[in-house]
What we know:
Layout: H1 8-14, H2 16-19, H3 21-24, H4 44-56, H5 65-80, H6 86-98, H7 103-106, H8 121-124
Helix pairs in contact: 4-5, 5-6
Amino acid sequence: MANPRLPADVAAVxxxxxxxxxxxxxRAAPKVKGLGDPPAYLGExxxxxxxxxxxxxxxxxxxxxxxxxxxxxxxxxxxxDPAMGVNALAQFRLCLSAMGGTPSDRSKVAAPEEPDDxxxxxYFN
Length: 125
């Protein structure tokens, strides 16, 4: 059985692309649209949780909308009731892990880099 294909970004980070360049030549990383605004059917607190995730994890894209919705509902529930059950907390942790939102999972994500030069610096220096 053949090894599963590694995404181009993963192959570059793990060194697999350097080890076997002809295997990974010509692979393109899929272009992903941004996360976008929260769905209108989410409640006000859930939409705020969505925006918090969008700010905290800038690498989230359109393909992450479903998991972000679930995590937003759980975060809103936690904000409203800090004593929510262990099962809900465990599910929230799994959502964070799937989104690359924990320290160990964050190392697996290539977040967009912040530009060093801020255009506003020209006006405030």
